[in-house]
């Protein structure tokens, strides 16, 4: 049968059966999904998806943190079509290049912070972080310090799913499968104030020179240290780790400006400047994984600009093409670029699709559109602050222990008791209960433990934020009703 005909005549149940029979989804319990059946998404426009039953869903997750310009942008579709006709593929291995890859490299140098003039293209964020591991180790080789090979990252960070990406990441469930992390990766704890700060870190974690935990901070939600003080404490875990490993063995530190998959953990404002200071002090490379926070998500072009860091390397993917086609890469700052170019010889690394012309053409159209629509400024001055107001108002809800946002990333912490932010029993799976209501009500909101998170397309309007907030409130109410009925409170 003609496949086109076959797609049109299939029902949701047909799709689900074929899906369960053949398609192994990422990060999925195959058997339980097969029982339940996938939700089949058939089309999308602007910020709305349509499923195979015709239900309209507000996509508050931008697909998977990537559809920054929203769905259905003709400029991206045209760019891909044009490039597919002109030159669908040529590689960059054989001392060759294609116009879209060159122009994109040029444009990226323009929109990224001034230390970045060079880019290494990959096919995804995970490949970008694999490239980071090879590149920082190569850098130290060239510097004549091959012993500097250890990369420090954070528990509950996410850096992708390849061997190196998953190793850099700090997801214990991922490490438990496949013998990870690979050697030479060390983890420190995450800058999550709700977990550490408000319960007062154990005294052993606080070192001489840490700011005092004064009485004046007690009013800030819990009974522990203030967010700002905690930010410094958490950053100094890096210094402790550097000293424990030995400065002469440490190559780099990598972190997401805001941890995305970890639950939209927004660090205190004091955190990144202190991380920067520590990296400078010991001369180690700072890597900002901007796969989510890049291309306007936080209200600046890159998250490091929002948080006051000056990384040596940046990983990007997702929003670079608004997810229309896969592309990733690494921005290489002058310090590393100089060594690689002037003294490195051949860098033995690359991918078939490094600088794929169609992907680069789409990225070019995407970045130009972000500029034309003024999306970065819009997030910074208009819809970002408007979302923050909406999130602030959620704090009054009985289930909400905390609600915070930065640009167009936000998280709502669901608690059993606002006093002391007491969590629900884990067996309740409160996030998944809430997420179930969201699905049924036509809202894509993701659950990470007890944190409900959003990252809507940057084209979202104020009216659409109102619509989204109304849906979020409704789903919180439905979840609260469940909690009361089932006696979870
Ligand atoms: C998604 C993500 C990655 C991995 O990107 P893929 O394209 O899925 O390989 C890496 N880092 C961060 C911060 C991400 O959110």
TrEMBL record:
Sample GO molecular function, one term: transaminase activity
Alphabetized PROSITE patterns for the sequence: AA_TRANSFER_CLASS_3
Pfam families: Aminotran_3 (PF00202)
Protein name: Aspartate aminotransferase family protein
Entry keywords, A to Z: Aminotransferase, Pyridoxal phosphate, Transferase
The keyword Transferase appears for this protein: yes
Family designation: Belongs to the class-III pyridoxal-phosphate-dependent aminotransferase family.
Region (Disordered) location: 199-221
Parts forming coiled coils: none
CC cofactor: pyridoxal 5'-phosphate
Gene3D superfamilies associated with the record: Aspartate Aminotransferase, domain 1 (3.90.1150.10), Type I PLP-dependent aspartate aminotransferase-like (Major domain) (3.40.640.10)
Lineage of source species: Bacteria, Pseudomonadati, Pseudomonadota, Betaproteobacteria, Burkholderiales
Top-level division of the source organism's lineage: Bacteria
